[in-house]
Design brief:
The protein is of the alpha+beta class and 187 residues long. It has a single domain (37-180), classed as tt1808, chain A, CATH 3.90.1570. The chain is 21% helix and 36% strand. It contains 3 helices and 12 strands; from the N terminus they run αββαβββββαβββββ. The strands form 4 sheets. A 6-stranded mixed β-sheet has the order 3-6-7-8-9-10, sandwiched between helices. It has a two-stranded antiparallel ribbon with strand order 1-2.
Length: 187
């Protein structure tokens, strides 16, 4: 007979930094390992991050963070690609430690190996964790989907593809030119 014990978020935080080339998360008490992002993933992350960060700074709207350990329960620590806290909730960020409050927006950039995780597992976890807004970006299909939490369930709140300019909650006044996010076509 074998007995397994789930690792807690507190125990997970004691592991320190990830080994080179991998990304660790805690999923239902078990360590999940994923590879480092690919160039297309990184490009979308950096370019969208720049667009959002400029908007947030210019309008004094809050804090944008990336790839930061965020506790979603005793046995779940995830690292959204990007996440945002509105100005009135920035005080919930305990700098130098994993985040223990739900962000106001989580953004996941889908990789071929993360489709099921981002569309099912994190979709459910972020809803249970009361994250009001969730965006999914697919660099391969050149799409973005936005969802808003209503009574514990995510509902579609906007989408775009290719070179559309989208206005998505919680930033309806910001036009995001999707064509700037995608990698250039090979020559």
């Amino acid at each position: 007979m074998s007995v397994t014990t789930k690792m807690t978020a507190r125990q997970f935080s004691l592991l320190g930094e990830d080994p080179p080339g991998v990304r660790l998360e805690l999923v239902d008490g078990e360590i999940a390992v994923s590879p480092s992002p690919t160039p297309d993933h990184s490009r979308v992350d950096r370019r969208l991050g720049r667009i959002l960060l400029n908007h947030l700074i210019e309008n004094d709207l809050g804090e944008l963070l990336g790839d930061t350990e965020t506790v979603f329960g005793e046995y779940d620590v995830r690292r959204p690609d990007l996440h945002y806290f509105i100005k009135s909730r920035v005080g919930l960020i305990n700098w130098g430690k994993p985040i223990e409050a739900p962000p106001d927006l989580c953004i996941e950039i889908i990789s071929p190996s993360s489709v099921r995780i981002d569309r099912r597992d994190k979709f459910r976890l972020y809803a249970v964790g009361k994250v009001p807004h969730y965006w999914l970006i697919d660099p391969e299909d050149k799409t973005i989907e936005a969802f808003i939490l209503n009574e514990g369930v995510y509902h579609p709140a906007g989408q775009g593809r290719d070179s559309d300019v989208v206005h998505l909650p919680p930033f309806p006044e910001l036009g995001i030119p999707l064509g700037e996010l995608w990698p250039p076509l090979p020559s």
